[in-house]
Here is the input.
Amino acid sequence: MAALSLLTIEILTAVLGLALLAIGLLVPRTDRRGIGYVATAGLAGLLIVAFGMRDVSGVVLGGYVIDPFGTYFKILFLAAAILTAVCSFDYVERMGLNQGEYYALLVLATLGMMILASAGELISLYLGLELMTITFCILVAFHLSDARSAEAGLKYILLGAMSSAILLYGLSLAYGASGSTVIKQIGQVVAASGASPALILGTIFLLAGFAFKVTAVPFHMWSPDVYEGAPTPVTGFLSVASKAAGFAALVRVFFGALPDLHSFWVQLFMALAILTMVLGNLVAIPQTNIKRLLAYSSISQAGYLLLGVVSYSVLGIGAIMYYAMLYVFGNMGAFMAATAFYNNEGSDEIKDYAGLARRSPLVAAVMLFSMLSLAGIPPMAGFVGKFYLFTAIISRGYIWLAILAILMSMVSVYYYLMVARAMYLGNPPAGSQPVRVAPGLQVAMVVSLLVLFFLGIYPTPLTNYALNSAMTFFMP
Amino acid sequence: MSFPILTAIMLAPVVGLLLILVIPEREQLTIKITAAAATSVSLVLAILAYVLYNKGQGGLQFLQDIPWVPAFGINYSVGVDGMSLPLVLLTAIVIFTGVFASWDMTKRVKEFFIFLLMLVTGVFGVFISRDLFFFYLFFEVAVIPMYLLIGIWGSTRKEYAAMKLTLYLLVGSAFALIGIIATFLYAAQHLGQATFDIQTLATVKYDLGFQKMAFFLMLIGFGVLVPIWPLHLWSPDGHVAAPTAVSMLHAGVLMKLGAYGLIRAGVFLFPEGARYWAPLIAVLCIVNVVYGAMIAMVQKDLKFVIGYSSVSHMGYVLLGIAALNTLSLNGAVAQMFAHGIMTALFFALVGNVYHKAHTREIARFGGLAHQMPRVAAGFLIGGLASLGLPGLNNYVAEFLIFMGSFTRDQALLGGLLSFRILSILAISGIVITATYILRVVKNTFFGPRKPEWDHLEDAHGVEMVPVVVLIATLLLFGLLPSLQIDVINSGITPIVAKIEAAKAIGGIF
Here is the structure.
């Protein structure tokens, strides 16, 4: 039974999810706020367990890989889930529905991501993906009384199903061409017998399928509407964790199964990265809704992360991991601030943020510094992350690509500063009250702000951790 | 371990900032006193460092090294040499006087001083860093507080100016970042180890093609900040819109970051690249000098005059860099210092007038010397410094630059131009400077008394702190130039040695 102990994190997560579901049924409708606390505590406990298992590696049942790379991403998902749960307390209560199910779904989505990040075999990868996607469909449409939320849910189901189908088709082609569903064995077969046309076709389908999940242009169409309509904490979770999970699986499949084709797919990813960075950033400029703005900004962030894939190196993977982790705090910080504002004002329009710095210095500061981190301005952590990504691609000789990427991140400064302008330069509307923020959310915001500052000023611990994990991925 | 004096200079504003964070907003005076205390700690330590610096020994001193990100060879390493030390002192003086120049501030005082101290931390950091990664990091730290400072507390078209300035600086710095990363990777390949240490990077032999490219990236990146024509468009708008203390810091110190970066990360690392691009800089800097001065001549707003005069004066710094010899580089660094002090003085005085009169339109003033004799005297001294009157710091600097560039023997544009001609053109800039400065002094301060300004009070009390400190500095280094030049020279010598060692190659023209 030694193998099962490797699965501790996944098993405990499943137990937590099911337990929350059961508690939700047992507790009377009026007292369900506590479920959020239980969920948060449970997730925090899981985070500690995952951190304890960070150096464990092994293979379960031949196709499920536990390694530092996967565990790193599990820690990331748990951190994002905790922030999302804390963020949801008031928000879900405001929606007034099914709190037990909400947190259970949140935990189950996390489980799906974990399976995705650890899958060393195509079928379990697909299972993880579907578990994640389907739970997210429900979460996105959770705001039942809101038509936009329902619309978002529908869009996510339709486009999610289509992208899953495309991915599945790619997986089946890869299986057909190599005769195995285990990623490692596919890699060996490809190395031995070369690439068949079917496999190349499969590669393209896989690429398109993953591009959907990580919202790379031109496969991003679903995301702005879904992000805008979904409950704000869910949007935050969707934009950071499901994207990171997509990258984890993408790296596993492409670097594990198809390294011999890398000269082919690196070109494709480069095209995706360029389109994603340019379009994501330029379309973000005219947005007037904070959630849509953050949606486009998160599309553009996927473009930067793709640079790590393009560099095809240990450094690139390490940079993706580092960036993905602090992206959790940067983006969740912004979404927490947006949630805090929404809980008070019921608005997501940027113009309503006018004078926020006077009404709530904390919310405004969290929003400002989170956005600066997303833009890659020191001393925020985002700068270090981008620095690693740019170093990774320049070391491959793509100086022009780095120039483009940096110029695009300067474009992003513009639209982030437009929010800062409203918050700091604008005047609060007459008779406005100070913004009240629940203590739990305050703590979460301050923590994520401190993490951003700390990792920006002293990035060493996480850098070493990410690079070492990336290294084990290449040299198991 | 000895006392980390440079880190203390940089962290004193951070401590002040954190203290202000917990002081309630209504305690305005406490906030101001805290800011003044924090910056005076920096100033005292900077003076101490300046006095204790061993000129005979030269090189980098007050070293401190802490490994930061070993995987990338990033170290927190600080130290100053003869080139950065005067600029650290300059920053300390300007921010100290800047706090006093903002003593009248009543709007959102708490946030103002928080952002101001954040800004100055970044500036100190740039001048003391010996590690290119930290150099760039500090450089960028200074940008965003500037946006907010200009956007919230500025005047004339402040939001436009703030955004323009921010985008210019960030786009510029993007090029510098690429140059830095490319240098890092190139050096890592040749040294066999990853390092961002500037001294170590300077030992690498970069091939010519790389030097040309890297220096060009640095030229754009730091040139925007200098500002080199035609990348200067952000600067007059920014200066005019910024609140007094920020204008002082901005024109007084931030522009010097650009010139300093150009010498440190450009000329020092890529001497051959510098030689290649020097003619371009030389030609552009003459445009800076002459065009800047001519535009200054027709301005109607006092601050715009100073803003364009900064563009013009920074042209001399560029000329000093372009000529690439001991005299001219000495002069360039001295000019950075002298111009920083002088322009801070101007902005402090103009801020004082604006605060009381609520206008800066030259045509509306006249005879202000009757109501504000101290301000008028201060402005006149600043003006005389600006046109290079002997006895003031600027004269020393400009003299060295002209000497250096005049003696440089290099034909440009295939013999059509030479540094000699450029020097003569640059010296003619002084004549134009004299014209516009004296015109402003005459139209604003001299002439018959205008009764509409009788309510203006002369500068008094804490308002005099910037005036006295800045004028004293100008006089001190003007009358005793060796105090300054000996220090600078000890920092310039190794750079010139590198330039001399670089084999002679043809320039871009």
